[in-house]
Amino acid sequence: MARPIKETPVVTGKDAKRFAEKIAHLKPESKEEREAAKKVYAKFKAQYTFW
Fold first, then answer.
1. Which of 17, 18, 20, 31 has the fewest CB atoms nearer than 10 Å to its CB?
2. Taking Cα atoms as reference points, which of 47, 45, 25 lies closest to residue 37?
3. pLDDT tens-digit series, residues 1-51
4. 3-state SS, residue 51
5. What does each C-alpha distance from 10 to 6, 7, 18, 19 come to in angstroms?
């Protein structure tokens, strides 16, 4: 039987400031990074079937 899901903790203080700063200044992924991620996904998808 599954355990109950706890509430997500609230981020406060320095951690909250650092998190907000990172979110505000996200850098877009490069085409190379995107293609690499697609290749890994395709390889994973080919190896495993979940149905």
1. 31
2. 45
3. 789 999 999 999 999 999 999 999 999 999 999 999 999 999 998 888 766
4. coil
5. 12, 9, 14, 12
15 to each of 12, 20, 23, 41, how far by Cα in Å? 6, 9, 12, 32
Contact 32, 40 (CB under 8 A): no
What token pair was written down for 46?
């080919």
Residue 19 CA to residue 25 CA, distance in Å, equals 10
Say if pTM beats, i.e. exceeds, 0.70: no
Give the residue among 33, 30, 14 at the shortest CA–CA distance from 22.
14
